[in-house]
Automatic annotation (TrEMBL):
Keywords (A to Z) from UniProt: Acyltransferase, Transferase
UniProt source species: Hymenobacter segetis
Keyword Acyltransferase: yes
Domain of life according to the entry: Bacteria
The name this protein goes by in its record: GNAT family N-acetyltransferase
GO molecular function: acyltransferase activity
Amino acid sequence: MKSPFALALATPADAPRLTQFVNAAYRGDTARQGWTTEADLLDGQRIDEEGMLEMLARPGAAILLCQNESGELLGSFHAQAKGELLYLSMLAVNPTGQAQGVGKFLLNAAEDYGRRYGCTTSKMTVISVRTELIAYYERRGYHLTGATEPFPTDPRFGIPKQPLVLLVLEKPL
C-alpha cells in the first residue's frame, strides 16, 4: 500500500515556515490541540529561526519533513549522525493531525537516515514528566538508559514553568 506521506529534506529556505510550524506544535494554545504538548511545562518559543538554521548547518544533520500529497507540512524531525550515534530531536507534528502515523513515519525515516550514515545506536532526550511521550518511544523500541541531562537554560528554547530534567532514551539500529 502506498504511503499517504512524502519525505523531504529541509533547506535553509524552509527555516521561516519550519520555525513557525515547530513553535505551534510545541507551545501555546495551538499545541494543546494535540495529545503531546509542552504548553503547560514551558513558556516562550521552542526554537527561533537562527537556531533552526544552526541545526540545518551541522555536519551530518538533516531536518526531515513529512508532507501530504499536496505538499502541506504535516511534521518534521531533526536527525544528526555523529559517528555510530544518531541523535534525534525536535519531533513536531501538526497538533490537529496527531495520531495519524506522521510521527511513526518520521521516526522510521530518521532511523533509516542514521543507518545510511553507519549509525548503530539512536539516542534522544525527553523531558522526564512527559510520560506519554516516553511510553510512545518505548513502544517503538527505545529504552530509558538511566542517564539524565539538564534542561537547557537558554530562553531561546523555552522558559520552564517548573524544574525540568531530560531523560536519555536509546535504541539499537
